[in-house]
Design goal:
Blueprint (H helix, E strand, L loop, with lengths): L2 H8 L4 H8 L3 H10 L7 H14 L37 H7 L21 H16 L2 E5 L6 H14 L4 E4 L18 H12 L9 H17 L3 E6 L7 H11 L2 E2 L2 E2 L2 E6 L1 H6 L8 H4 L3 E4 L7 H11 L10 H10 L1 E4 L10 E4 L3 H17 L7 H6 L2
Parallel strand pairs: 1-6, 1-7, 2-3, 3-6
Antiparallel strand pairs: 4-5, 8-9
Length: about 400
């Protein structure tokens, strides 16, 4: 590979911008940077124009046509580590908004102002309704998904829906800011902390009893009194993959609090895939919880990527097709997937792992929009997506 390609990537310059400056096609430039194959014309002049353009961009163009010893883009091995594929938080720059004629960022945290701004697939629609029915009528449910899969969005949507529909549901949310599953790395969330959260939510002015026995009697009475006035109660725990096993076991006892035949407390857990490991049927310590807890997985947006992008741009009054091409969407699929397995002596089968979750998609497209604006490219193409680093 020519050093030219490395320089373009390091300085966030695209092949498309260089091709326009040279007045050659992108395919012609791709042959140059990827295969060192030059068109049949005055090659020295073309090289001089490339060096001149690089200099205008503030790039040291010396030896830009030397081989770097790297491998060509089309010959790279499949990525096997997702950390190398996910970008840090990206912010849409003001100049980028102006470039694309946008007034709001489609993937910003503030882009979701109401339920109408939440993109739903059949899987997330089921999870959304299951959460609401659990809060309203009782149950024990765990929603599991990778970071950025939309768990927090579903939690906010649940609370927003309860408030808008004036549902008789009291939401109890323990603070999990420093929660870890052991006391060496952080602070574990214990049954006593859950009891404290319930008491403070139902009776914020009531003094918490000191002894464990009195405290649990106190919360049981508060739940009974609130239930008899017509309220339901749901305990919502985010980052539940950090719950220690003993607390998971204790949740069964909270779930079984009742007033006659009436259950007093529903439970919703939201966590990353590690929570699924802790709720495994193979672990005897949590088998009583596993038997009572419904687990819902949030899969990646594999079959809904185009619809997701179209929805996000439509919600801010923009046309997706004026921002990103279909070829670029295919490139997003390629960027956010990798191969796993097949390295052992007994197994040669490799499987494709998708990272097409809302947060990862948003960060990649936002970075691509910034890069396109920086290079004065009107629409994001596949080359822009592959140039994002």
């Amino acid at each position: 590979m020519l050093k030219l390609k490395t320089l373009l990537q390091q300085h966030k310059l695209t092949q498309a911008a260089l091709a326009r400056a040279l007045e050659v096609s992108e395919a012609t430039l791709a042959q140059i940077v990827n295969h060192n194959q030059w068109p049949k014309q005055d090659i020295p002049t073309l090289k001089a124009r490339i060096q001149c353009w690089l200099g205008d961009q503030g790039v040291n163009e010396r030896d830009c046509f030397n081989e770097t010893g790297g491998i060509r883009h089309d010959q790279r091995p499949e990525l096997d580590e997702e950390d190398s594929m996910l970008l840090k938080k990206q912010v849409l720059l003001p100049a980028t908004k102006k470039h694309f004629g946008l007034f709001r960022a489609p993937f910003d945290d503030y882009a979701v102002q109401s339920a109408d701004d939440v993109f739903l697939t059949p899987d997330s629609s089921y999870a959304r309704e299951a959460l609401y029915q659990t809060a309203l009528f009782g149950g024990f449910i765990a929603v599991i998904g990778e970071s950025g899969a939309g768990k927090s969005t579903l939690r906010r949507d649940l609370i927003d829906r309860i408030n808008k529909e004036n549902s008789p549901v009291v939401v109890i949310e323990p603070y999990v800011l420093a929660m870890e599953d052991n006391d060496h790395q952080g602070k574990t969330l214990k049954a006593a902390s859950l009891a404290e959260a319930i008491v403070h939510t139902l009776a914020p002015l009531e003094k918490l009893k000191r002894s464990p026995e009195a405290r649990f009697r106190q919360l049981h009475k508060l739940l009974k009194d609130s239930s008899r006035t017509g309220y339901r109660h749901v305990l919502v725990i985010e980052e539940a993959h950090c719950l220690p096993i003993p607390t998971l076991k204790h949740l069964k006892r909270f779930f079984e609090l009742d007033d006659g035949h009436k259950k007093l407390l529903s439970i919703i857990l939201l966590g990353q895939p590690e929570l699924g490991d802790k709720l495994s049927e193979r672990l005897s310590d949590v088998r009583e919880v596993v038997q009572r807890c419904e687990v819902i997985d949030l899969p990646p947006l594999d079959d809904h990527l185009t619809d997701f992008l179209a929805f996000k741009f439509k919600r801010i009054g923009a046309d997706m097709n004026k921002v990103i091409t279909l070829e670029a969407i295919k490139a997003i699929r390629q960027r956010l997937s990798y191969q796993r397995g097949g390295q052992s002596a007994t197994s040669h089968q490799r499987t494709t792992v998708s990272l097409l979750y809302p947060l990862a998609i948003g960060n990649l497209v936002t970075a691509a929009m910034n890069l396109a604006a920086q290079n004065a490219i009107p629409v994001i193409d596949a080359n822009i997506i592959h140039s994002v680093h």
